[in-house]
Amino acid sequence: MYRETSLLPSALDAIGSTPLVELCRLTKGLEGRIFAKLDYLNPGFSKKDRVARQIIEDAENNGDLASGQTVVELTSGNTGTGLAIVCGIKGYPFVAVMSQGNSSERARMMTALGAEVVLVDQLPHSTPGQVSGGDLELVEAKAQELVKKRKAFRADQFQLSGNFRAHYLYTGPEFIQQSQGVIQGFCDFVGSGGTFAGCAAALKEHDASIQCFVVEPQGAAVLAGKAVTQPNHRIQGGGYSTTELKFLNPHHMDGFIEVSDEEATTVARQLAQQEGIFAGFSSGANVCAAMKLLEGSLRGKVIATVINDSGLKYLSTDLWNT
């Protein structure tokens, strides 16, 4: 079994050790294999539960978070959900700051978990469901304001090493153990960069020949050095047109793959219908990128990727208007 069957003391202990499954149906006709880590099975339905737990526990251990102190963080919804769970169990008030452009399910879920959710209006030219870099800057400004006003701890997923450490210490090693060390490639859609950076570091320490690829939205592939032509893409949680991602090690980035909104949507739907995996846009982007690798430079290889979050968080979007 992928998880111990003994009684767990809290939902915190149910974070991580998620299953690794082979996508046999989507790879029919392709040479090679794709292993997908089902991080949407974490308690908050996303990989960000790992980050939330690590950031809070690191802050406790370092003395940066006082008993009962308010925690604030900006989020597209997933980190905020993880922090709502972790803070609720540990007794810290949590304020999630999120753009109005993110799917409404996320705000409702965080509220249900006890968080205070502050929604920030999008820029006048922005489209609901399509959060741009400019929209994110407004959310960042509001988060900074609330931290100062409430003397809060900022659980900054873009700056605090817990984001990297959660995946370097746990997700990456889980890939190696569960695959019995046969992984030859890895790809991940980059938001804050923690998952890619942590997993790539762990995988390359295990075997330096493993090739790791950054996945970006088509038209917003800034990390690949391209101009932004589509800042309002639909793949929530990344592609924010920023290159200031401190966790990324250029020596661990072997290449870049662009995925369009349409490709991410199509593969997310195929994941649901053919593999029984109900996931969101970025998970569709990840699997689409892995399929592109099998069609190209990693033909015949074993590629690992992450199922980032649940399709339940996108029911109000057009992802499931099939």
Topology:
Layout: E1 20-22, E2 33-38, H1 48-62, E3 71-74, H2 78-90, E4 94-99, H3 104-112, E5 116-120, H4 133-150, E6 153-154, H5 162-179, E7 185-189, H6 194-206, E8 211-217, E9 255-259, H7 261-275, H8 281-295, E10 302-307
Parallel strand pairs: 2-10, 3-4, 3-6, 4-5, 7-8, 7-10, 8-9
Antiparallel strand pairs: 1-2
Helix pairs in contact: 1-2, 1-5, 2-3, 5-6, 7-8
Overview of the molecule:
The protein is of the alpha/beta class and 322 residues long. The chain folds into 2 domains: 11-47 and 161-320, Rossmann fold (3-Layer(aba) Sandwich), CATH 3.40.50.1100; 48-154, Rossmann fold (3-Layer(aba) Sandwich). It is 36% helix and 15% strand. It contains 8 helices and 10 strands. It has helices spanning 48-62, 78-90, 104-112, 133-150, 162-179, 194-206, 261-275, 281-295; strands at residues 20-22, 33-38, 71-74, 94-99, 116-120, 153-154, 185-189, 211-217, 255-259, 302-307. It has a 6-stranded mixed beta sheet with strand order 1-2-10-7-8-9, sandwiched between helices. Helix 2 links the parallel strand 3 (71-74) and strand 4 (94-99). Helix 1 packs across helix 5 (162-179). The protein is globular and about 55 Å long. 53% of the residues are buried.
